[in-house]
Specification:
- Helices cover 42% and strands 23% of the residues.
- By secondary structure, the protein is α+β, with helices and mostly antiparallel strands.
- The strands form 2 sheets. Strands 1-4-3-2-6-5 form a 6-stranded antiparallel beta sheet.
- β5 and β6 (140-147) form a beta hairpin.
- The protein is elongated and about 85 Å long.
- Residues 1-30 are annotated as: Disordered.
- Its EC number is 2.7.7.65.
- It is an enzyme of class 2 (transferase).
């Protein structure tokens, strides 16, 4: 469980949209105003949550609005594993200034179940009631614990309207994220594609105070011969296996991409040339050790790698990629299955032979 951010604020003394203690509980005079408030809230709620394309922002907006409508002590958004959504908890916190902020926590599903279980055991008496919103389309559930008392029961149409709108907003945001992810990923390897790599490289290169930035260009040796001899299905297996091998050698902040055809690229933020060359050598060894005996006995694959490092913060991204590509060309021309570091990155480090 980790803290993410504080979201949503309500001012002290701000008018609550829920029904307060002391209002009449009998007749149309008490119920009708509540229904009108519920209808206005539902319209505002739907408009607000549907404006977001990030599921976490949808949940944060929903939690903030519901906190204004009826105060609660804890809100938990729990989702089934197939939903691809994070389970979130929102906890209202009163600041010294008098403002109420919602602290957002990302929960794994075990913690979400444990927190809900503990809150349910303490959701009666002076701590208030519990309100649940089923989200079948997601699938998931929103549960509000320790809800402040209102003397009018919440209508089924109100709970159903809020749940339906929240479900629709979450599904839209989730589907948008999935489509965006597909647009940035190579379908065969699951790595980033060329377009995403270029965009991420530009972002990383533009960061203020960024340290050294290294790029690896990787090419599968003799790939055309592999396709010609064993067929394109075997070639696809090789590309997927090499993609997995490259990904396995990347650190948490590194970015691996299929750059096109049998060519791959890796972005290594903060890596000096010597460190980048070490990563490249590990990738080369891992590729050379891949087992393709299921394609043909003694069938092996190798890769050539070029390394470039940008030490000047004002250096261009295009120049860095060109240097990595030039280094790759040197590795190919020098016999393949090796790592070459561009001379501008490391003057006394030219080629690592296996």
């Amino acid at each position: 469980m980790r803290v993410v951010k504080a979201v949503g604020r309500t001012e002290p003394g701000e008018e609550r949209r829920s029904v307060h203690r002391g209002q009449s509980t009998h007749g149309r005079g008490g119920v009708l105003p509540q229904r009108l408030r519920e209808a206005r809230f539902t319209v505002e709620f739907c408009r607000a949550v549907y404006a977001h394309l990030d599921p976490a922002e949808v949940c944060a907006t929903a939690a903030a609005l519901l906190q204004e409508h009826f105060e609660y002590g804890l809100a938990i958004f729990s989702f089934a594993p197939e939903s691809d959504l994070d389970c979130l908890a929102f906890v209202p916190t009163r600041r010294p200034s008098g403002k109420t902020e919602l602290q957002c926590l990302v929960l794994d599903r075990l913690h979400a179940a444990q927190v809900q279980g503990g809150a349910s055991r303490n959701a009666s008496g002076v701590l208030g009631a519990e309100v649940s919103f089923g989200l079948p389309g997601v699938p998931g559930e929103l549960r509000l614990f320790q809800v402040a008392e209102t003397f009018h029961p919440l209508s089924r149409s109100f709970l159903g309207g809020v749940a339906e709108c929240l479900s629709a907003a979450l599904i839209k945001a989730r589907d948008h994220n999935r489509l965006r992810e597909l647009a940035l990923r190579d379908a065969m390897t699951g790595l980033f594609n060329r377009r995403a790599f270029r965009e991420l490289l530009s972002i990383e290169a533009g960061r203020r105070g960024a340290g050294p930035l290294s790029v690896l260009m990787i090419d599968i040796d003799n790939f055309k011969a592999i396709n010609d001899r064993f067929g394109h299905p075997a070639g696809d297996e090789v590309i997927m296996a090499v993609g997995r091998a490259i990904g396995a050698e990347c650190r948490g902040g590194d970015l691996a991409a299929r750059y096109g055809g049998e060519e791959f690229a890796v972005l290594l933020p903060g890596a000096e040339a010597a460190n980048a060359a070490g990563v490249a050598e590990r990738i080369r060894n891992r590729i050379a050790g891949l087992d393709f005996s299921f394609v043909y006995p003694d069938f092996t694959v190798t890769g050539s790698l070029g390394v470039a490092c940008r030490r000047d913060p004002n250096g261009s991204v295009d120049e860095l990629l060109r240097e990595a590509d030039d280094a790759l060309y040197v590795a190919k021309r020098s016999g393949k299955n090796r790592v070459s570091v561009h001379e501008a990155a490391l003057h006394d480090f030219s080629t690592l032979n296996h």
